[in-house]
Specification:
With 117 residues, this protein is mainly β. The protein is 0% helix and 56% strand. The protein is built from no helices and eleven strands. Strands 2, 4, 5, 6, 9, 10 and 11 form a seven-stranded mixed beta sheet that branches. A four-stranded antiparallel beta sheet has the order 1-3-8-7, with no helix packed on it.
């Protein structure tokens, strides 16, 4: 069964840092890219960042550029999201996704990130 599982969410003070992790399975899954999206309370889900699995190229939403960094470990089918200088407006459920070479994008269940002011 193809799936992605996030971990690492939690409560952090404004200005703090947090690292999220996400593992895609099965290990044999051929991945085109992995990405993070988020949904804040009462708002639409929005794109945060994406990384190309082969080239490693990345792109970011404007409001996280310079504060968030996406990276990957191909051998472990794992993607990381390092978040620093967190703001209360970063509070959201963060979703990891994996786009297989063939097939639809796979979504995780999400992990809660709460930034206190």
């Amino acid at each position: 069964q193809e799936q992605v599982v996030e971990s690492g969410g939690g409560l952090v003070e404004a200005g703090g840092s947090l690292r999220l992790s996400c593992v895609a399975s099965p290990r044999s899954l051929s991945i085109a890219d992995m990405a993070w999206s988020r949904q804040a309370p009462g708002k639409e889900r929005e794109f945060v960042t994406r990384i190309n699995w082969i080239s490693g190229s990345t792109n970011y939403a404007d409001d996280v550029k310079g504060r968030f960094t996406i990276s990957k470990d191909n051998a472990k089918n794992t993607v990381f999201l390092d978040m620093k200088s967190l703001k209360p407006e970063d509070t959201a459920i963060y979703y990891c996704t994996a786009k297989p070479l063939f097939g639809r994008r796979i979504w995780g269940q999400g992990t809660q990130v709460t930034v206190s002011s």
